[in-house]
Specification:
With about 150 residues, the chain is mostly helical. It contains six helices and no strands. The termini are far apart.
């Protein structure tokens, strides 16, 4: 039933779009953004059950609609262009200091969390070990033995 309803919805969208570039003429509207946000993943993603995806691919005007929006607003997704470069002219995966920056971020976060834990009293350090002979505290049992 769910697949049947979804197929019907796709068919109705295809009929409504017709041969237009967008649903309400030559410029996109909020409905176009909403419909594209549902159709593009359905068209591009690898799905375990491709029945609905196959139906969408059979509706050529909806496929063209998605391709048109992808090339217009996301040109690097189609392979023609690359995403914008970082300010230093390198993409993020090519940044030679990426690993160092990640490690420093983790260390700073860890130090901040430990500092908070110590200052708030969540974690405390108690020293154990031997104290000088004259300064050891007397326990209750030792006190009873002395009396």
């Amino acid at each position: 039933q769910l697949y049947r309803d979804a197929r019907e919805c796709l068919t109705l969208l295809s009929q409504r779009l017709g041969s237009q570039k967008f649903f309400f003429g030559d410029s996109p509207a909020s409905l176009d953004a909403f419909v594209f946000s549902r159709l593009a993943p359905l068209l591009k993603a690898k799905l375990p059950n491709g029945k609905l995806q196959q139906h969408l691919k059979s509706l050529q005007n909806l496929c063209n609609y998605c391709t048109s929006i992808l090339s217009l607003y996301f040109p690097w997704d189609g392979g023609e262009m690359r995403p914008p470069a970082s300010p230093h002219g390198l993409r993020a995966e090519e940044d030679p200091h990426k690993r160092r920056n990640q490690l420093l971020s983790v260390l700073v976060g860890l130090v901040a969390m430990l500092g908070y834990a110590f200052l708030s009293g969540i974690v405390s350090i108690q020293r154990s070990g031997t104290r000088p002979a004259g300064r050891q505290p007397i326990t209750l049992e030792e006190e009873e033995e002395e009396e």
